[in-house]
Fold these 4 entries.
Entry 1:
Amino acid sequence: MAEKRQPVLVQYCQVCSLPAEYCEFGPEFNKCKPWLIQNTPDLYPDLLKGGSSEPKQEEVKRLPGGKIKKKEKKEVVIEKVVRNKRKCITTVKGLELFGVKLSDASKKLGKKFATGASVVKGPTDKEQIDVQGDISYDIVEFITETWPDVLETAIFFIEDGKKVPAA
């Protein structure tokens, strides 16, 4: 007859309440480190050496569930959306990353091109500027002249679903 197996004793972390083996995958691993060093030094020997398991380069924002939020690239994306066959809307995204106030930018764009321009929330809940009309190629020169912080190499067009540099 087979021997009766004994139950496995699992030690749970007092900080995050995960099993100690899974603490490093939890959202609060930095808070768990002192407890792990004191109670389970054999599981994480690299913590005892004084160094952390990963080099500190820059503070990364963590979302719930341990996911890492990517840092946004500083770039302006210009997209032309066609509606009703002949009417166009030019959408400008990413100007706020360069320190440009979107309400002021929409007023300047509206006056320069004699069209309606407004700040709206896009599909990703980020604000963008909608300008009536197809001004996609004239707008690059205007943006670089008006706001010198925005370089022409940081401006991109979306054409046929692909991101194309403006320069």
Entry 2:
Amino acid sequence: MAPRCRGPLSPTGFPGVRFRPSGNFTTEIKATDRCHWLGTFDSKEEAARAYDVAAWQLGRPHSDKNFLDIESLVEAELVAPEPRLVSCEEKRRHQLAMERLAITEADECAMAQWRRDHPEDMLA
């Protein structure tokens, strides 16, 4: 029987792994109706190993994994960084909080500049 086609690979060569402009690699895995962000890693291999651990934990078939020479969850956990399962919703909430913080900081800078430029408007 011919080997099963895994579909198109990402540009990194590993399913679930993406290269970020910062030079790091991120990985996420989809499970039913949820997306789990696994973290940011220094190398694509580290990210792919974290993906494989999550795939083992979710009960994915062996052919869906990046490193087919790993035969068990225990073996995968020995060679991978600890995965951190975070939902995409939690990631969105964090991004929204960071955007709000940036707006607040910009407002504070603008108010400080106004106080310097218009001291007559300040109460004594």
Entry 3:
Amino acid sequence: MAARGLLLASILLLSCFAETCYGMISFSSLKRTLVVSASHRQGLLKAGEDKITVTWGLNQSLPAGTDSAYKTIKVQLCYAPISQVDRAWRKTEDHLSKDKTCQFKIVKRPYSTGNQTLEWAIERDVPTATYFVRAYALDAEEHEVAYGQNTNANKTTNLFDIKAITGRQVSLDIASVCFSAFSVVSLFGFFIAEKRKGRKSQQ
């Protein structure tokens, strides 16, 4: 019984250690093998309205077979350092399981050789901030093995600003005006009908 208990404890310990190792993939250990670009209109972008065209692919200057383990590509919208200051919920951590830099999914699809392009509509829940785009290459186990981004290592170039949706929407304003107009017309009609009834009762 003691030997069996020791064996079970050893297996449990090894499995926990393996899980910890997989969960502790560090960003600094990844190679930058992907080339990523993001194009959009000039000026402040608006959530729920504007679009970003993202292109990614393997750096063609790298040796053949560099991407042999790549099975999936995950592209994300990420906070730039200027929008992480005093915001712990956006903090960058080297351990990817704890990193909060990239919180918005743009696309996740099977890896394909050659450049891939996607036009992404900025989602309505994206908050006001300064951003960049990053792509991760995942292996068969869904672990990050490489990356690329449309900015430099310090994340200071090719950044763009997005403004969140604030206040009432135009559609809501139109609906409100229509409802108010309908209410006024209905009230006016009711008043006329009641006045006619009063006249008839007097006759």
Entry 4:
Amino acid sequence: MGRGRVQLRRIENKISRQVTFSKRRTGLLKKAHEISVLCDAELALIVFSNKGKLFEYSSNSSMERILERYEQQSYADQRQLHPTDSESHANWSLESPKLMSNIEALQRSLRHFLGEELDPLSLKDLQLLEQQIDNSLKHIRARKNKLMHESISELQKKEKALQDQNNMLAKKLKENEKKVTEQPQCEHQNLAQSSPSSIQPSPPAAVTTMQFPLTIGGSYHAIEGTNKEVETQPQPRTNTVIPSWMLFHVNR
């Protein structure tokens, strides 16, 4: 896996910055020497560190000679780019009539295109002017038709998008209406299934009548109203203790 690209920005760490400067300076001097040897070029390299220390390299010729040559060449280039006042004045005096004639020709052509000052023109000039106007109209109409087609195409795309959206909304509306219509039917069916009327009533139980013949100290017979079965259950005993006042009358 290769090393990532180094982001070019100032190194904040002072030690790392100094180490990087030393390494890059050595590499730069080495590259300068190589290009001067391989390409037979006069080369001068000047580097100042952040502390103001000077580092320089020059090819076989001396640094002063290269700098002098640089000053002469740069001065000549500046003269070509920025001539003196006298030279510029002479050039402007020559160029001014040409510029004025060009301006007059353009203004005259503009008036001709507007349909003005056509009397001095010959038949050939008028035909040429008409041809130029026709060509201009063709370009204008072609550009107008292109813009109209683009506008129509854009409107058709918008129409299609709106139609698709409308169809989707209509589909959702139908689904919602279907759900709304099906929901009461389901609720009605659920209510019909869970209502008590749907449960078949069980036959009423037979009513039995019980007759309890009273007997003192005996038993009673339970007789069912159906007269199919008679059950005899023991009668609970009653308290037969005679009060004392009754015993007194008996003894007398």
